[in-house]
Fold this sequence. Notes:
The protein is mostly helical. It has 7 helices and no strands.
Amino acid sequence: MLYMFAGIILFVGTHLITSLRPIRAGIIGTVGEWPYKGIYSVLSLAGVVLMVMALDKVNFHLLYIPPSYAKTIAPVLMLPAFILLAAAFLPSNIKRFTRHPMLWAFALWVTAHLINNGDLASFLFFGTFGAYSVFGMISQNARGAEKSTNKVPLSRDAIVIVLGVALYVGLVFSHRWLFGVAVM
């Protein structure tokens, strides 16, 4: 459990500093923007790695029994999650409908996994990302995040959708190999 909490503290802590603009600006003023981004990335990744390592080490404690429909809903939620994830990095009209495609992708990913996993370790792991996704949306909205007003050709949307579907299919077939659990 120590790894899980250490990972949560590292991941959430680094992301909280980013949302606290005066503190972030002070750190950037001291070390520079690129060193800040490097340190931020390393600490965030270290937090995720610690949480992943803890998933197999935490004693199994069932918090709730997943509903019978969970195995059906999760794949349905994951498809738009991958499309939104692709939209976060590529120009598309999707950004005209949401200010936070990556955070929505994480929220769907979290929901899909919490529906299927009722144990404490999964709740802590996925719940951390879910709580951060909600906090991130609220924080960015408070700082004035806006939907894009740029219209791009529909071909860009097609590219985002095809890439999202390809990532989805790839993960469906590699999930057992990567994470030890078959999706379907």
